[in-house]
Design a protein that fits this description.
- The structure is a homodimer of 123-residue chains.
- Chain A is mainly α and 123 residues long.
- The first copy, chain A, has a single domain, classed as Arc Repressor Mutant, subunit A (Orthogonal Bundle).
- Chain A is 57% helix and 10% strand.
- In chain A, strands 1-2 form a two-stranded antiparallel sheet.
- Chains A and B meet through helix 1, helix 2 and helix 5 of A and helix 1, helix 2 and helix 5 of B.
Chain lengths: 123, 123
Amino acid sequence: MEPISREPVISREECTASVRHIRDALYVLNGKWKLPLIFSLTESSKRFGELQRVLDGITPKVLVKELKELELNGFVLRKVYPTTPVTVIYEVTPYAGTLHNVLNELKEWGYKHREKIKSDMRK
Amino acid sequence: MEPISREPVISREECTASVRHIRDALYVLNGKWKLPLIFSLTESSKRFGELQRVLDGITPKVLVKELKELELNGFVLRKVYPTTPVTVIYEVTPYAGTLHNVLNELKEWGYKHREKIKSDMRK
């Protein structure tokens, strides 16, 4: 399999293929919560309540749904420990680690974008 | 301003800040079309019909809406040339170029993810 071309001038077929790869990625990482969730769990495993605090604004219903989808797609593990009451900890799978570069680039871009917006507002 | 820490072990404040940067990025790049659209226009400026073909499955109504939002947020320019009938070409702004790394990482991840899914299905 040939590596994906990084040349700025590419054929229509290559462009369509690259667009498809990006769409494939966004298909499984859809919505505004999955990438922040995976990032947050990459930093440290967390309980449901901790995730709610870090993802300020997410409703419990949506958090349950997003975690289930991430579990089904192999990014998150839900571990139940037999304490009284039981302790449930969410952690990332090794596969979630393949998103490291995506998450870092998004984080850096988001930071710079906010700085730009702030600087534009001061003008 | 200090650079963002890349250490795996970070404090809760740093984790929350990093999650916020990712959410800031996804806030402006929301949905399944904006990143593929920007990528497609980064490769070459395009007319509306060409964009529709590359973004297979997008409806004209949604494409109009997405392009307007990208224009408002400074990622896309709509250029009108005085031909008969007028020619409208969409192109990216230099600011859209700041998404280069994000787009490349997503593209590579999407490609590898599809390969993984295919290989999982063969098992």
